[in-house]
């Protein structure tokens, strides 16, 4: 603002001072809001970048430490835990990288790429979720058949693997003991598999804990040792299938799944809005004569009517 000597003499200093105060306050508020959005957006993407790196590291570790999980679904190994972690990690890493670079270097190109990737990710999630809901019956049957095929072809009693690299047999045995279940759909899933062709046997992990592998049946001269695995008596086995237990476990935790979905949607919406605000503001900041600085250090000195003023980013 310019106040000449005549205005000062006629109207006094107060109007000029109030106008200057409002102008300075307006500039400070604008600079502070821009800086707050920029730093929050950058910190948010750094956090996502670190989480993505963690998911990627977990996926790589699972891939080399637990290769047996991939054979649970032999024809759809991409759905295994290691592949899922690696996919989520790579997507998060790439998107967060463009977000960090776009906010830190104030690059409109990186911000547009970030916005485009988030939109594509949101559309992909919506499409996959819709397809999974519509074809949930077929997907469930497909997973059931794949698990049965993995039992039939890859279960090997003699291959127990190691502590860090468990085999398919070790994974299934631990799962059935922990969940107290037998088979994917029923105990008959274990009949006539490659580990015991032509036999109607089940693994020891299907037997109830009170029976174990061998137990005595009868009394007196009729006392005999019975092998629970080969007895063919369903009363000796766990009465529920692992598919039923896992489905019940998932249904009981639907509220957690819904909360996670809402949080992910909110984070994506925040990223979209913040990136667009920065994209629209960067060009204005660079071309404006009022705001020449939006870095943490002193950027420039404004000279107005011979008066020097230094503006710093809040």
UniProtKB/TrEMBL annotation:
Major location (coarse): membrane
Recorded topology in the membrane: Multi-pass membrane protein
Compartment annotation: Membrane
Entry superkingdom: Eukaryota
Sorted UniProt keywords: Membrane, Transmembrane, Transmembrane helix
The keyword Transmembrane helix is assigned to this record: yes
One Gene Ontology term, aspect cellular component: plasma membrane
Protein's UniProt keywords contain Membrane: yes
PANTHER family: TETRASPANIN
Name of the featured protein: Tetraspanin
